[in-house]
Write a structure and sequence with these properties.
The complex is a heterodimer. By secondary structure, chain A is an all-alpha fold. Chain A has 2 domains: 2-51, no CATH class; 61-272, MetI-like fold, CATH 1.10.3720. Chain A contains 11 helices and no strands. In chain A, helix 9 runs parallel beside helix 10, helix 9 (184-221) runs antiparallel to helix 11 (240-268) and helix 10 (227-236) packs antiparallel against helix 11. Chain B has 2 domains: 23-99 and 177-279, Rossmann fold (3-Layer(aba) Sandwich); 109-174, no CATH class. Helix content of chain B is 36%, strand content 22%. Chain B has a 6-stranded mixed sheet with strand order 6-7-8-4-9-10, sandwiched between helices. In chain B, helix 3 packs across helix 4, helix 3 packs parallel to helix 5 (159-171) and helix 4 (130-143) packs across helix 5 (159-171). Chain B is globular and about 50 Å long. The chains are: A mainly alpha, B alpha/beta. The A-B interface holds A 172-173, 175-182, 186, 190-191, 194, 197, 270-273 and B 11-12, 73, 76-78, 93-94, 97, 100, 102, 104, 106, 108, 110-112, 121-122, 124-126, 153-155. Bound molecules: adenosine-5'-triphosphate (ATP) and magnesium ion (MG).
């Protein structure tokens, strides 16, 4: 019962692959959204120059593109992107591994569940971001503290979904293993873990979003580099075009990560129909 | 083969030797009471005495909720905490396990494994020789008429095909006893008849002992050497009817007079079983 409460806070239902999507509507959908985007950008550009909106309030799209290219050419964006990218991916991987392992322990051993679960429920509702300043104090301004923050923020959806997924195994499959005399570890490996994968992936998809969030907020709280740090710097200098340029980078980063996740998911969960 | 039997035991506990017996499965005074979480008790089985003879095809019928699945689960070693005595053949607990194959009502295939890997599951868990098992799995997949589907996945198969695969899986470790719990319950009438004939062919070819639960009187008669009729809860054995229809049986058997006589007799027995309960 507690699991369900905790689960409703962060978790999406297991997603299904959309392999049978018809081709035609997809093509025209893309066309429509590209056209819509172009229209919006044109209006924006036109409005900014027509009303002579100052750059530090709302820069024109052309100014953002210019800033983006300048940042990329000077190497500043690349350097900071690598920092944020590394933090995010490393923290996410830690969250994925530790979250799955801890979830497995909770689901498999009643003692672990009794000891750990109340803590999980309590921590689940706590905004993990609020711990970020503390982590910065303990672990410093470098990359390490951000990896910890990212892992902390991203671990909960993985953990809770792993527990859910492992517990959701239907009795028939477990009976089948039991009738053959399979041990606990073998049943876990052969039946429960694969059965939980769709749930775990639903958790990982949430975790990816949380990881980027944790990375940027961690940098806001205290950092020497990274895209979040760049945003803060640009903010102090009223360089709004640069803020937008970094946001574009962050958006592309998010899309890249979710594409990778989608790819892995389609490979691993092709049977989940 | 030495003979080993069990006495009241928990599920998964070793079997304790008993005096020799000839049957494939022997149940003596088996009763089962479930305790629900709310503290209520459900008397599922009451004093079941039943022999399943080696090599016979035994059908079990009875009203819904009369304890048929419970009985099967006890025989399969999935249900502990019962009274009475269950005996199965085998030298050790693990060998007894190898001697039983189960077909559940739901095919229970693992969706992430292809058909061949699914059929191989019991061989894998029982640590049987891999090469020989793969060969056997191929034979069985051919026997259930699904040659060529080895590398497909369960979602690519129809319900009937999946159930056939689960029958192949139950046979891959070559058990002496095949337990089936309404194996065709989820299938349409047409597929069901085809499957009945197929399973009879498999049974004739493999010489197994079969214990099959069904809701269909005609299926019970068509397939069984013997039909056991159970009363509504608490489940008791009301009657055991020998079915003396000639084999091999086929679709023509269904339209014979003798067949109709048996189904009529069983229908009356089922009625008596349930009216007794209402009268009590
Ligand atoms: N785990 C359980 N806990 C409590 N009661 C149970 C449990 N399993 C079965 N029962 C009860 O035992 C009785 C017999 O159940 P069982 O599943 O053996 O019936 P069945 O003959 O197989 O029915 P059906 O034909 O509908 O499958 C039922 O009344 C059921 O409610
Ligand atoms: Mg049943």
């Amino acid at each position: 019962m507690q699991i369900e409460q905790a689960q409703s806070a962060t978790i999406a239902a297991p997603t299904r692959s959309r392999k049978n999507r018809p081709i035609r509507p997809f093509v025209s959908d893309t066309a429509i959204s590209v056209l819509g985007f172009l229209a919006l950008v044109s209006i924006w550009e036109g409005a900014v120059s027509a009303f002579q909106v100052p750059d530090f309030v709302l820069p024109a799209p052309s100014a953002i593109v210019t800033s983006l290219f300048q940042g990329l050419a000077s190497g500043v964006f690349v350097r900071n992107f690598l920092v944020t990218g590394f933090q995010t991916v490393a923290g996410f991987l830690v969250a994925a591994l530790v979250g799955t392992a801890l979830g497995a322990l909770v689901a498999q051993f009643a003692i672990v569940e009794r000891v750990v679960y109340p803590w999980l429920v309590a921590l689940q509702t706590l905004p993990k971001i609020a711990i970020a300043p503390l982590i910065i104090i303990w672990a410093g301004y470098g990359i390490g503290s951000k990896v910890i923050i990212v892992a902390l923020v991203a671990i909960f959806p993985v953990l809770v979904n792993t527990i859910m997924g492992l517990k959701s195994c239907d009795r028939g499959k477990l009976d089948l293993m039991r009738s053959l005399g399979a041990g606990r570890w073998e049943t876990f490996r052969v039946v429960q873990l694969p059965n939980a994968l769709p749930f775990i992936f639903a958790g990982l998809n949430v975790a990816i979003v949380m990881a980027i969030l944790g990375s940027i907020v961690g940098e806001f709280v205290g950092s020497k580099s990274g895209l979040g740090n760049l945003i803060l710097e640009a903010n102090f200098q009223f360089d709004v075009a640069r803020i937008f340029a970094v946001l574009v980078l962050l958006g592309l980063f998010g899309v890249l990560l979710s594409q990778i996740m989608g790819f892995v998911q389609r490979r691993l969960l092709f049977w989940n129909k | 083969m030495s003979l080993v039997a069990s006495y009241p035991r928990r599920a998964g506990q070793p079997y304790v030797p008993d005096r020799p017996f000839q049957e494939a499965v022997r149940l003596r005074a088996v009763s089962k009471i479930y305790e629900t979480e709310s503290g209520e008790t459900v008397h599922a089985l009451s004093n079941i005495n039943l022999d399943v003879r080696s090599g016979e095809f035994l059908s079990v019928i009875g009203a819904s909720g009369c304890g048929k699945t419970t009985l099967l689960r006890i025989i399969a070693g999935l249900e502990g905490g019962y009274d009475g005595e269950l005996s199965l053949r085998g030298d050790s607990a693990s060998q007894v396990r190898r001697n039983v194959g189960i077909v559940f009502q739901d095919s229970n295939l693992l969706p992430w494994r292809n058909i061949l890997q699914n059929v191989l599951l019991p061989a894998q868990v029982l640590r049987l020789d891999r090469r020989a098992s793969i060969e056997r799995a191929h034979e069985l997949i051919e026997l259930v008429g699904l040659k060529g589907f080895e590398h497909k996945y369960p979602y690519e198969l129809s319900g009937g095909m999946r159930q056939r695969i689960s029958i192949a899986r139950a046979l891959v470790h070559d058990p002496a006893v095949l337990l089936m719990d309404e194996p065709f319950g989820a299938l349409d009438a047409l597929t069901r008849e085809v499957m009945n004939v197929e399973v009879l062919k498999i049974w004739e070819a493999t010489n197994k002992t079969v214990f099959m639960i069904t809701h269909s009187i005609s299926e019970a008669v068509f397939m069984g050497d013997r039909v056991v009729v159970m009363s509504p809860r608490p489940g008791r054995v009301v009657a055991e009817v020998d079915i003396a229809l000639p084999r091999p049986r086929n679709i023509e058997t269904l339209s014979g007079e003798a067949f109709a006589a048996y189904t009529g007799q069983l229908r009356r027995l089922l009625d008596i079983g349930s009216s007794r309960k209402e009268g009590a």
